[in-house]
Design brief:
424 residues; seven-stranded mixed sheet; 16% strand
Length: 424
């Protein structure tokens, strides 16, 4: 009996020791973080650098001790500009790789593809790109701009005296949900300002489209009909390169027909001769040329990282842009929320994200809205320079609170302040 008691006691002790050891190991184990961006296909021109920005932020956080004393371990996948594959890769990250959070997507069609996966599995997505609004999910934090933080201010600028007093508009986009919904909002906004349907031209091209000769010719003809004309571009991905090249080839200058783009920044202009494009516009919440200590530090860190890691295209000419800033803000806010919640549990992190702030490279203190999972963001309009950078020509006095439910879509009446809730 004594022998059996000693054996039992030893077994219990061994189990207790093993349990304690396992608990300690779990507390010290890395926190896995998913990165879901197209590294190939038509969107790689824009998304690849966001993968590298996320890796830089993770490396920086790890160098400072990680999150709750645990290192972050990035898990990178390539959905290859294939929208159904985004959903498949998202499920893989959550169920197989056991990531605590995912940073990713660019196009709205990719975000729409993964959204049911994140809601079904109650996981978190941080989405870093401007979009069309008309969505709120408990499981998504939107660190890019809603339409009232980019599209509407840009068109108001074009209609103003400083912006050229445009009276006719070309709505030109890639054929998917973001451009079509944004242009639905803009068409209603223009109508509210007295612009007739006859003074609005709307054109769409598929992803990867490369021949813009006939479309630029149509724009030139439309603009020659008497009223000051402006182009609002929601072209996405590598189609921007042939579009801007053709703009230059046909001599469509900003003084004649200004183009304001919502998806073209420093990175997309890298492969384009920008000398013929001087004066054309982009609307964002950040530009590399913004001068302040936070941006100086951000650019310096990115340049050092890109050189050390040999980031393609950035080793010798490092560029920063708006979605990079939004990615960087999102990762740092998530870190803060996890530490506040003392947990990576989805619901606890969601609660802790409300009201989080972060000193952004744009120079403002970005705040995550307590109700709608969107950042408060300042709006900037920049003119293309000969070197591919932008001179800021207009900005809002301060951060703009996001309105994901546009007032210019009638069925949205009363939705403006509806808080995010879990779907039943």
């Amino acid at each position: 009996m004594a022998i059996r008691r000693r054996t039992f006691t030893a077994t219990v002790g061994a189990i207790a020791l093993a349990s304690a050891t396992f608990a300690v190991q779990a507390q010290q184990a890395p926190i896995k973080v998913g990165i879901l961006h197209s590294l190939s296909g038509t969107m790689a021109i824009s998304e690849t650098v966001l993968k590298d920005t996320a890796l830089m932020a993770i490396e920086e956080i790890n160098a400072k001790g990680g999150v709750m004393g645990r290192k972050l371990e990035p898990v990178v996948v390539d959905p290859a500009s294939n929208w159904p594959l985004f959903a498949e890769k998202a499920r893989q990250l959550i169920t197989q790789d056991k990531v605590a959070v995912v940073f990713g997507c660019w196009t709205s069609v990719s975000r729409k593809s993964v959204l049911p996966v994140f809601e079904e599995l109650n996981s978190l997505l941080f989405y870093p790109v401007q979009y069309e609004g008309e969505e709120l999910s408990k499981n998504v934090f939107y660190t890019g701009a809603a339409p009232n933080q980019q599209a509407i201010p840009a068109v108001e600028y074009l209609m103003s005296k400083d912006g050229g007093s445009a009276k006719r508009f070309v709505l030109l986009g890639t054929d998917y949900v973001y451009p079509r919904t944004t242009n639905k909002i803009l068409r209603a906004f223009l109508k509210s300002k007295g612009i007739a349907d006859a003074d609005i031209m709307e054109e769409y091209t598929p992803f990867g489209h490369s021949d813009y000769q006939s479309i630029i010719a149509k724009i030139k003809k439309f603009s020659a009909e008497g009223k000051k004309t402006a182009v609002i571009s929601t072209i996405n991905g590598d189609s921007n390169v042939p579009f801007y090249k053709e703009l230059g080839n046909q001599g469509l200058k900003a003084t004649d027909v200004p183009v304001v783009a919502f998806s073209v920044g420093e990175e997309e202009l890298r492969g384009v001769d920008t000398k013929p494009l001087v004066g054309h516009l982009a609307a964002w919440n950040y530009f590399m040329t913004i001068k302040n200590p936070a941006n100086d530090e951000f650019i310096k860190k990115w340049a050092a990282y890109a050189k050390a890691k040999g980031v393609a295209g950035h080793k010798d000419k490092p560029l920063t842009n708006d979605p990079m800033e939004a990615t960087y803000i999102g990762i740092n806010m998530w870190k803060q929320a996890v530490e506040k919640a003392k947990s990576t549990d989805t619901d606890k992190v969601i609660a802790a994200m409300a009201g989080q702030t972060f000193k952004a490279p744009s120079g403002i203190t970005s705040k995550m809205d307590e109700k709608n999972h969107h950042l408060h963001k300042s709006v900037f309009i920049g003119e293309v320079r000969a070197d591919g950078q932008f001179n800021v020509v207009w900005k809002t006095p301060g951060p703009v609170v996001a309105d994901p439910w546009s007032d210019f879509i009638p069925e949205n009446k009363g939705k403006a302040n509806v808080p995010v809730v879990a779907k039943k």
